[in-house]
Design brief:
The structure holds two protein chains of two kinds. By secondary structure, chain A is of the alpha/beta class. Chain A has 17 helices and eleven strands. The model of chain A has no long low-confidence stretch (mean pLDDT about 95). The chains are: A alpha/beta, B alpha+beta.
Chain lengths: ~425, ~150
């Protein structure tokens, strides 16, 4: 299997080996070795927490440069609804399509509209008698990967509908090719993304073979040009032709998706640590009343993505205000049956989401048992300060790393200090014993 | 092979703040050992229920976890007060939990039945003034480990 692509990357020249990212990573995917951070590929879920916390900006996200669009003859922009929260003027939402066309795109399709389609498809799933409880949203790729690595037993609860990004790309490309009479491979679809995880999901699609999206361009990449174009704009915003509803736009903030799918017994949770805690509860069978679970890795939802410009609280509030201005047509009324049927063949995940075992100590059960008891013994010798100076996030993690052969006991500066103290007193003893 | 006790977890009475920690740790250990996730899920549900029972009803106790290829065993013992009528306690919906506890979303009377449902072997003994012991074994159809 080819190496798993990660959008989240480390610039070694900027990393000083501090423990900021080490301590913050929700999946313990980072180690500091030889004075530099190292990301363990199998564990990273591309949530982007490390990008946020790195004081030296050594953590970054590989996304596509704007110039990537020139690889295709025809270019379609797919702005994430969170983009509308980045600009002070709420009218920006209606002006962004024209501005994106000035930047070189031939067509703009709102992912908020794709969100309305997905809402309808999810509603159908919720009505099926064999629908798992709770049904879990598939829209945040970091959460989907979190479930694969840490909550494999909940994989079957993930709704098998593709994300709004994918659905929008499929629909936009088809419509463009039909209207213009051009072949599909000449059309590039580019997601304007608030996060790194979406880029990863394009390169390593979750639950389907290939992505309909050809690249992800970050908010930060387009922010300067876009805000400049919006400032110079003289045209009147045309909300009458804005294709997205209040519901679709609200997917940009936490809770918007839950309201869109229209079940009262829905639970929306934002922030990766909070999502982990609630998934634990679900796994323990503690939330039987919840029918739909919307979990978003970033606080505030997509408006809080690591590649956004605006403060999350401000952006989230703007999305709320914008949603008030837009038509409150529910997705089931907005999306006609024919539109849903036309997409039916491409709407669903067709590859099983596989569990990704990352914490198993050994393939062999007896060896794993043996390792576990050695880890337990070691952990008792370690100081339990979880200081991170050894390069592992916690004393428990260091004990595991030692047993797995990735570290030694003397990585722990406290044990080292103790060892030095003993050696020093032995030397004093020796020198006294040998004094003439 | 008899399963060596991997871990023993103490659970304090009334410690709602830390309730769920023991079952969380049990889940972590089972993942590290590569126990199949379907089996982990059943153990997780039962261990959480039993941990909450210790917090709510008992004077405190311990959960011992042992793992061997193909099965997971939980042996739970508390220091009292004991269950006066076991047959009644095993009925769904029967609970002696206080209103305060019910306000927290517990005490629906599903704890013991839920444990029994998730375990392949379930044995309970209780003596008033002494304590309650519960033995649960969870088997994996495909065998744990390799």
């Amino acid at each position: 299997m080819s190496k798993y692509f990660h959008s989240v990357t480390l610039d070694v020249s900027k990393c000083v080996g501090c423990t900021s990212c080490l301590k913050r990573c929700p999946t313990e995917a980072i180690r500091i070795r030889k004075g530099r951070a190292r990301i363990i590929d199998e564990r990273c879920i591309d949530c982007g927490e490390c990008i946020r916390v790195c004081p030296y900006h050594a953590k970054g996200a590989v996304t596509s440069p704007l110039s990537i669009i020139n690889r295709f003859r025809y270019k379609i922009a797919l702005p994430a609804p969170a983009l509308y929260g980045q600009f002070k003027d709420l009218n920006a939402a209606a002006l962004i399509p024209a501005a994106l066309r000035m930047m070189g795109f031939d067509h703009v399709s709102e992912v908020a509209h794709g969100a309305d389609i997905v809402s309808r498809a999810v509603m159908e799933r919720l009505e099926k008698p064999d629908c798992p409880t709770p049904l879990i949203s598939s829209s945040c790729p970091a959460v989907v990967r979190l479930i694969q690595t840490r909550f494999p037993e909940l994989i079957g609860n993930i709704v098998d509908v593709k994300s709004p990004m994918e659905v929008t790309a499929i629909q936009a490309r088809r419509a463009f090719c039909e209207a213009q009479g051009v072949p599909e491979d000449e059309v590039g679809c580019f997601f304007i993304t608030p996060c790194a995880a979406k880029m990863t999901a394009i390169r390593n699609p979750l639950g389907h073979e290939t992505s309909a999206v050809n690249g992800a361009i970050s908010f930060l990449e387009v922010y300067g040009v876009l805000s400049d174009l919006l400032r110079k704009n003289t045209a009147k915003p045309d909300f009458a032709h804005f294709p997205a509803t209040s519901f679709g736009v609200n997917w940009a903030r936490i809770g918007g998706e839950a309201i869109s799918v229209g079940v009262n017994e829905a639970l929306a949770v934002d922030g990766i640590d909070n999502v982990i805690r609630v998934l634990e509860e679900i796994e323990n069978g503690r939330l039987p009343e919840v029918k739909y679970f919307e979990g978003l890795a970033c606080l505030g939802g997509c408006v809080g993505g690591p590649l956004t410009f605006e403060n999350m609280f401000i952006a989230r509030n703007r999305i709320r205000l914008l949603a008030q201005m837009l038509p409150k047509t529910r997705p089931e009324r907005k999306i006609p049956d024919e539109e849903l049927e036309a997409l039916r063949d491409q709407l669903y995940l067709d590859r099983p989401l596989k569990p990704l075992e990352t914490v198993r100590l050994d393939e062999d059960f007896k060896t794993a048992m043996d390792k576990l008891s050695r880890i337990e013994k070691l952990r008792k010798e370690l100081p339990g300060l979880d200081c991170g100076s050894c390069g592992s996030p916690t004393c428990q993690a260091l004990a595991e790393d030692i047993v797995q052969g990735y570290a030694t006991e003397l990585n722990c500066i406290h044990l080292l200090k103790e060892r030095l103290r003993i050696m020093a007193s032995q030397m004093v003893e020796m020198s006294e014993a040998t004094r003439e | 092979m008899s399963g060596a006790i991997c871990e023993s977890y103490a659970v304090e009475a009334g410690a709602f703040g830390t309730a769920g920690e023991a079952s969380g740790k049990i889940k972590g250990v089972l993942r590290k050992l590569g126990v199949p996730s379907a089996l982990i899920r059943r153990v997780a549900v039962a261990s959480y229920e039993v941990e909450l029972n210790l917090v709510i009803h008992s004077l405190g106790g311990t959960i011992d976890l042992s793992v061997e290829p193909g099965s997971v065993v939980l042996d739970v013992a508390d220091r009292g007060p004991g269950i006066p009528d076991l047959a009644l306690a095993m009925q769904e919906g029967w609970s002696t939990a206080s209103d305060e506890v019910r306000m927290l979303g517990f005490g629906a009377g599903m704890g013991l039945p839920n444990m029994k449902r998730n375990a392949d072997e379930f044995a309970i003994q209780s003596e008033m003034g002494v304590g309650t012991r519960i033995h649960m074994r969870f088997r994996s159809p495909e065998g744990t480990g390799t």
